[in-house]
Each structure stands twice: as C-alpha cells, then as structure tokens.
Amino acid sequence: MNVEQYMQETGQRVRAAARVIARAETKMKNAALLAIADRIEADESRLIKENRQDLEAGVKNGLDAALLDRLELNPDRIAAMAEGLRQIAALPDPIGEITDLNYRPSGIQVGRMRVPLGVIGIIYESRPNVTADAAALCLKSGNAAILRGGSEAIHSNQAVAACIHAGLKEAGLPAETVQVVETTDRAAVGELIRMQRYVDVIVPRGGKGLIERIANEARVPVIKHLDGICHVYVDEAADAAMAVRIAYNAKTHRYGVCNAMETLLVARGIAEQVLPELGALYAEEGVELRGCEATRQILSQARPVTEEDWVTEYLAPILAIRVVADVDEAMAHIAEHSSGHTESIVTNDYRCAQRFLREVDSSSVMVNASTRFADGFEYGLGAEIGISTDKIHARGPVGLEGLTSQKYVVLGDGQIRE
To answer: What is the pLDDT at residue 391?
Structure first.
C-alpha cells in the first residue's frame, strides 16, 4: 500500500463528507449515534472475536498487563461504549447556536454562531472504545473525522468502524464521515499531521512521547496537553480536616491519570497540623514521599526532594511535598513548575481564594476541591475527547463545544455603510 496516496484519498473522502455532516440536522446526527450504539450491541460477539486477535498478538509481542487490560473488550465494556453513544446523543447540539446578538448604531445586529471545525484527525493508543467515543463526539459536533488507532488494536478498531459506518448509512449520512485508518504503517501518522488541505485540527491521545512528536512535527493545529503536573496548596486559613481529605483524594484516588496531584504545597502555619496525618494516610497506601527540608523535619520517612521531582508527572504512588511561606510563594512555585493542567487551593480565606483563581494560569483552577474533578464528565460536558493546556480555542476538558468554533453573523434590513 502506498501510504501517502492512501491518506490523500482518505482526506479527500472525509473532506467531502464534512460538508454533509456540517449541515446535518440534529435529529439525523442523533439517529446515527443511536443506530451505531444498537449495532455495537448487536455485534458484541464479533467485536470480542476481533479483539481476541489483538489480545493474542499483544501477548505474543510482549505487551504488559496494563496495556492488555486497556486493549481488552468484554461485554461490560461494549455495553459502556453503546451507553456512551446514547449519552452523547442526548446532549444539546451546539451547532447553529447564535449568541451575543446585539444592535449596532447602524441598525445591524451582530452576533456569533457556533460552527464545526471541519475535519478532525485523532491519533490514539490501545483503547478500542476511543474509536466509538471520538467518532460520537465528532459526529454530534458536526465534524468529520480521521481516526488512527494503535497497531495493537487494529482488528478491534476496524470492527468498531464497521458498526459506525453501518449506523451512519442507516441514518442517511455518508459512511465516509468517519474514516478509521486501515494501515498499521507508522508513516500514516506523519501523513495525517501534515494534511493541511484536508484536516483542520489534530487531537493526540496517548503517552508523552507520542504527543511531543505530534506537537513538534504537525503542520495542522493540535489540541493537546503534555503533562499533568497538578498541585494542591493548603493555605494557613484552611480547614485542616478538609485539607487532609482533599490532598489524600487528589493523590490516591487514581495514580495513572493526568488530573492526579503530583505536588503538595503546604503553608508553614498549618504544616505541623496536617502533614503528620497525611503522612500516615499516604503510608497506608504505600505512597513514597519526597519532601523539602521543612517537610522532612515533620515527616521523617520523606526522601529528599530534587529539582527534577517538581517537574515530573509520576503517574504513580509518589508525591513531592514543599512547605511554603504563604499563597504568594505557592503561586510562584506553581508558575515555575506547573504544566498548566489543574491546581487547587484549600482555604477559608475568601480574598486568598479569589487571588488564586485570578492569578494561577492553568486550564482548571479550583477552590476547596480535589484535582480529580478536572474531567469532562464531572464538568457536565457529558464526554471529552481530551484535555487541552493550550491558551487558544479549547482549554481544559474538550467536549462538544471544544470541537467547534464561532463565526460572526450580521443581520440587517438594507443597511449600507455611509
């Protein structure tokens, strides 16, 4: 297969389909999503059979247990895929919404209409359910999509793609609206991220190495985040019991996720009160602590922290701790070391909380809540295609609205410029 020719032809088909899906009515898009959900449930045995081929190849190729677990499809996961499609169908359609409509002195009305981005390229690894999730979010937001999953899930992804195409046809929409790349050749990724003529935005989902490569090589705009170096700052005016509860949850609820806390900052005035209790709780969970000198005077089990620890996304039961003088020192630390994902302050001081919200420059900033809430579902978006730490267009969890743009619309009744 000539990969360049294949990807160019794929791009041509998707671009043509994008014009159709962009003008599709909400009821047609919802009908397609529901039809895809029904087909996924009806094809459960085939999906499991195709997935078994990927699992067997994964074992043969030495994939570790965690990757194999993410790769596996079972009846519960297939049911969850179908339910996710139905949930997205139930969400409000953002396309065509006109906001900020105001009269100007000339008599014209000026507003902004929400429109699709066009063609979205999504590059991801392992999980076959992403094929259905990504397709659903793109469809509901009026976009066409080129999906390039990992080679380890090729049979599973193609099986899900067949369900997607069948559902699109049943709803009267072109099957080409969602194209799942059929080749495992890595050159396909290189072609996809340079197809400026056919692709409007790229969304990479996977490890840091993949995302760095995409960000460095892409000629198409990228919605991304590289790291989740998230902070919780416990202020001197915090409720100690609340602070312990939040800091414990933010670290131990799940380790391998981008919104887990990686650095705990504690005001000097409350450190002696909260750190011993937190240290005991972390010890029960097997969390390795790495602390500054002031931290180690309180928690003797903490290892000396290094500068590298402040900029490391552990995704593991490891936590860096620093005792700071006040909120200014905490915010200075965050400004220097944060990846811009999520930061939280625990405090009962209203003015301090407001300063933290205004001055901390991350995609999600919280007061008296665990960083684990930085998630599209928890934010009421219904679903997300990823999280963006960029500062233009989409920022934070990217749901339906993040997959759209806005254009100005002008309504007049014969006005001319004098």
So the answer is: 79
What's the pLDDT at 181?
97
Per-10-residue mean pLDDT of the chain, 418 residues long, equals 93 97 98 98 98 97 88 95 94 95 97 97 90 95 97 97 98 97 94 96 85 90 88 98 98 93 98 98 98 98 97 95 98 96 98 98 97 90 81 85 95 94
**Token code pair at residue 125:** 């690894």
Rounded to 5 degrees, what angle do the CA atoms 105, 108, 112 make?
Answer: 115
pLDDT of residue 37: 97
pLDDT score at 209: 80
Between CA 136 and CA 88 the distance in angstroms is 7
The angle formed by the CA atoms of residues 227, 379 and 110, to the nearest 5 degrees, is: 100
- pTM (two decimals): 0.84
